[in-house]
Amino acid sequence: MIVVGGSSSKTLATEISSLLKCDYVNAINQNFPDGECYVRIDAESMDDDVVIIQNTYPNNNLIEMLLLEDAVMSLGARTITLVIPYFGYARQDKVFKLGEPESAKVISQCLAARCNRVITVDIHKESTLKYFGCPYKDVKAADAIADYLKNRGIDVVISPDIGAVDRAKRVAERINASYDYIEKVRLSGTEVIMKPSKSNYRGKNILIVDDMITTGGTIITAAKQLRDSGAKSITVACTHGLFINDALNRLKSNNLHEIFASNTLTTSVSKISVASSIAIALKEW
After folding, report:
1. pLDDT tens, position by position, 114-163
2. Is residue 184 among the annotated active site residues?
3. Cα–Cα distance between 75 and 42 in angstroms, integer?
4. pTM to 2 decimals?
5. I need a surface site. Which of 83, 88, 132, 187 has the fewest CB within 10 A?
6. How many CA atoms lie within 13 A of 280 on its CB side?
7. Residue (of 89, 19, 77, 88) closest to 52 by Cα position
């Protein structure tokens, strides 16, 4: 097996190749003066099973992934496995208004033209991967999050909504804590409040765990409700830390104890590695 690290995921790719004890090949990435993407694989031949590790967010990384697929194929790759730590466009998985594309399907089908297998990490909806038309796995980051935070004295793990309570449960069970979720209560057609489903967290160390933090608004609101319920400290952890529009600084200014994200995306708080979970998924094939 040969691991190729795209520009968005080189550190993660080298860690995975080390865990698998397989060759790592660097992908050279540059931009032409007009902004178009240039890639080259630093190898003469790739007569082996090849794993490309690269995000499809933002758009330039998507283009790079498509070009990397063709490059490794031209070098003789026997099979191509795509590892997409953060799958861009995954949240655009349905048509909301007439005339819109089903973007997640379009991107999947484009990537599928040259790959044999695909691995993602906490994709928005795993059903999106069926559009690849090949074997797929969606790795869950909950175990990696739990292992990183298991000695932090967490009493309760909380999901920002009931739909993701299974993630909170999985983390909680692994660190021997209880779990809960934040309820959204609609007061009127325009007013919604958020509150813990249980009312009293006085003196408790809370971990809010989510798959993604984009603007941070949901986390900030949830943290306020938990503080009002008496929480002693509030730690936040997520799989994908996008932190757009200065979200990380806004989160830090809201009296949170600590903030962590996994290394699917590279930020100053990307301390939790999902390399081991991905390596295990690759070994299973």
Report:
1. 999 999 999 999 999 999 999 999 999 999 999 999 999 999 999 988 88
2. yes
3. 10
4. 0.93
5. 187
6. 11
7. 77
| CB distance 42 to 21 below 8 Å | no
How does DSSP assign 63-124, residue by residue? HHHHHHHHHHHHTT-SEEEEEESS-TTTT--S--STT---HHHHHHHHHHTT-SEEEEES-S
User: Is residue 219 classed exposed, middle or buried when 0-12, 13-18 and 19+ CB atoms within 10 A define those classes?
Assistant: buried
Nearest to 171 by CA among 151, 147, 201, 206: 147
Phi, psi of 118 (to 5 degrees): -145, 140
How does pLDDT run across 219-250, given as a tens digit for each residue? 998 999 899 889 999 999 999 999 999 999 99
Cα–Cα distances in angstroms (integers) from residue 183 to residues 90, 186, 222, in the given order: 25, 10, 9
DSSP summary character for residue 202: T
Residue 220, SS3 per DSSP: helix
- Count the alpha carbons within 13 Å of 203 in the hemisphere toward its beta carbon: 0
Token pair for residue 246? 């200065």
Q: Which of 150, 169, 184, 271 is catalytic?
A: 184
Residue 181: CB atoms within 10 Å: 22
Cα dihedral 215/219/222/223 (nearest 10) = -120
Provide the pairing of β-strand 192-196 with 178-186: antiparallel
Q: Which residue has the tokens 């178009």?
A: 36
